[in-house]
């Protein structure tokens, strides 16, 4: 099959590899419809390996090269033995990308998204930038009937946003500031707005705020400095020190700051200020299949047009690097929220 594999920093290749294997027990195989490119894919391309294992991964046993891609929609082609839930060939599904160890005390408690050893498809195991993908059936959620497969590929970022919103669970009618107009920030904004909150989005770049989905949400440039204490609830979806500082400063005394970004290094934080203003910091990591991915797909079915506005590019698998990763790394990056890749027609 054709696939896009990470071999090294700045060395991602469109190439022919062995087909994804037929599904074993409790596994299914998919024909990939769409796979979203994510900030983490870009980071692995530009600065990796970060999560991609160069020695054997403790859970998956894999090492580079690996097929990238973890934001996947596809149709089931084959179902292994002992698959629960009646999954059948032809069904459109989306995936939870996490591969927890399943064995540690945290996994056994059910909070497998906090497993210290977890891997991800598309990083520590082969992912969805390929024609075929074999995964554990428990990672798979059936898409609601009639959902556009391209929109279904947004399920992973929306599940991450859904998990964050459920971690925050704000009281009704909050004034919310989202810092970071990427896919996680805007998905979080769409969910919170649909739940009746007054949402503003800030970002550091102008271009991204000109993207229709961002404009429609009511946007504000970060360098305009939202007034201090502007929001009951803020979210840092930039994963940067300045983004986090902006979120903290914009939060009213007694308010809450949601942590959706993952800065690559420790960032400064004014503990005394946070203590005096009694801020609550809420961390959020990835998502769970039943609690988050399933309702995220239902949300996408109810809000398909708004979610589809996050899709700013569609490219063929063969063009993943020149028209996908290189665009996201280049001068045009601010014009994009989500570029989707399809292997359709490459075989
Ligand atoms: Zn992602
Ligand atoms: Zn574990």
Write up what this structure looks like.
There is one protein chain. The chain is of the alpha/beta class and 347 residues long. Helix content is 28%, strand content 27%. It has twelve helices and 18 strands. Strands 3, 5, 6, 9, 10, 17 and 18 form a seven-stranded mixed β-sheet that branches. Strand 14, helix 8 and strand 15 (251-259) form a beta-alpha-beta unit. Helix 4 (155-168) packs across helix 5 (183-194). The longest helix is centred in the middle third of the chain and has 14 residues, at 155-168. The radius of gyration is 20 Å and the shape is globular. One zinc ion binds next to helix 4.
Could you name the key traits of this structure?
single chain; 347 residues; seven-stranded mixed beta sheet; six-stranded parallel beta sheet; 27% strand; globular; binds zinc ion
Summarize the helices and strands and which ones pair or pack.
Elements: E1 2-8, E2 11-16, E3 27-36, H1 39-47, E4 66-67, E5 71-79, E6 92-95, E7 98-99, H2 105-108, E8 119-120, E9 132-136, E10 140-142, H3 149-152, H4 155-168, E11 175-179, H5 183-194, E12 198-203, H6 206-209, H7 212-216, E13 219-221, E14 231-236, H8 241-250, E15 251-259, H9 271-276, E16 280-283, H10 289-302, H11 304-308, E17 311-316, H12 320-329, E18 338-342
Parallel strand pairs: 11-12, 11-14, 12-13, 14-15, 15-16, 17-18
Antiparallel strand pairs: 1-2, 1-4, 3-5, 3-9, 3-18, 5-6, 6-10, 7-8
Bound molecules: zinc ion (ZN) (2 copies).
Count of separate DSSP helical elements: 12
What spatial form do the alpha-carbon principal axes imply?
globular
Structural class: alpha/beta
Percent of residues in beta strands: 25-35%
Number of strands: 18
Regions with little confidence, pLDDT below 50 for 5+ residues? none
The largest sheet, given as strand count, sense and whether it forms a barrel, is:
7 strands, mixed
Q: Terminal Cα separation, in Å?
A: 7 Å
| Helical content (DSSP H or I, runs of 4+) | 25-40%
Quick check: average pLDDT? 93
